[in-house]
Amino acid sequence: MTDQEPPLPPLEWDPQGVQIQGFSTGLYQIEWLLVTIIILYVVVMGSPAQGSLPVLVVTISYFGLSLVASRLRFFGERQRWLLAMHTWAMIAFITWFLYSTESVTGPLASLYLLAVVTSGLTLGMVITMLEVAAIAACQLLLLHLLGTDLLSAANLAPIATSVAALLIVGYLTATLVHAVHVSNRTLLKMASRDALTGLLNRRAFADLVKPIHGMAKRSKRPYCVIAIDMDKLKRLNDTEGHAAGDRAILAVAQRLDAGKRSSDILARYGGDEFVMLLPETDAAGGRSMMERLINTVKDDQQSISVGIAVYPEHGDSFEELLGCADSAMYVSKASGGNRVSVGASDGRMEPELS
Question: What is the maximum span of the chain, computed from C-alpha positions, in angstroms?
């Protein structure tokens, strides 16, 4: 992979984490927009009945807390409950401001939209609908505290219209975000998976190898890199056609996938080549695993040639290890195929086994 290529996103899609991580910047922009609107209102419209100083102090304090939260990355990608608490705090702050300015039925009631959009972007449908219900309850409470007749159609109509608008905005926002994540999951699969076998492709494998190699360097623990090549695939393509060759590739991929551990990484590296990474595995462990796989091959199954290299014995970088494993694989192939060869640090190969 070249240096210019951006890394792939996480191969295991975490929609909740990605929602919070992806929209965290937008969240703070919404917060600042809320504070700006309130300050402009106080400046333009003048002091509310209780005086402008308490409104400005609370507003600036709320803005300061939001700013500190953004600088400290308060909302980690898995801290959904903190973000939920923050949106509830936003609703409480807006409710307090509407009460202070007696604006529950005025245009400032639309400030609740900011909380609903924030929830819809990051917290999903259920929490968003709960927040809309809470906003409706807050608006009714404000009408009651301001001495308004709740049974009056003239007073209930604006509340009902506002709640309906909030429901629509919340539903559409949450639905749109869900559709975006479904699309992203599809694109991620297309970007990281081989179309024929469903295994990781070369680029995705390289992205996953980097942290494992770094961890091995820090812990001084071994890992195996295994190069695998199918025997005589060209002959099969020439005699039975490429469809038969594709079926053979798929069968080998399925056999390799079934034989690996959950912690192992398997990828189709191109054509009839596969590569595996076995964390926390030395040469003996990798060899034993691949010999077991080869020895269980039935007569009608495609045979493979295998080469193994181990960190740090055969190289200090993944590229060196892959080159050593590839050379060992060609030794297996030159010896008749259906064999396992282990690379050696002095350039020789350990004896192959059928």
Answer: 93
Give the pair of three-digit tokens for residue 129: 């609908």
How far is the C-alpha of 207 from the C-alpha of 211, rounded, in Å? 8
The answer for 270, left when phi > 0, alpha when psi is -120 to 50, beta otherwise, is left
- Rounded to the nearest integer, the mean pLDDT of the chain is 79
Class of residue 274 by CB neighbours under 10 A (exposed 0-12, middle 13-18, buried 19+): buried
3-state secondary structure (DSSP) of residue 14? coil
* CATH number for the segment(s) 202-342: 3.30.70.270
Q: What is the DSSP letter of 107?
A: G
Report the distance separating Cα 263 and Cα 258, nearest Å.
Answer: 13
User: What single letter denotes the amino acid at residue 166?
Assistant: L
Is the per-residue pLDDT at 24 higher than 50? yes
Positions of CATH 3.30.70.270 in the chain? 202-342
Q: Phi and psi dihedrals of 115, rounded to 5?
A: -65, -40
Q: Where is pLDDT greater, at 240 or 55?
A: 240
Beta-strand runs (E) in the chain: 223-230, 265-270, 273-279, 304-311, 340-342
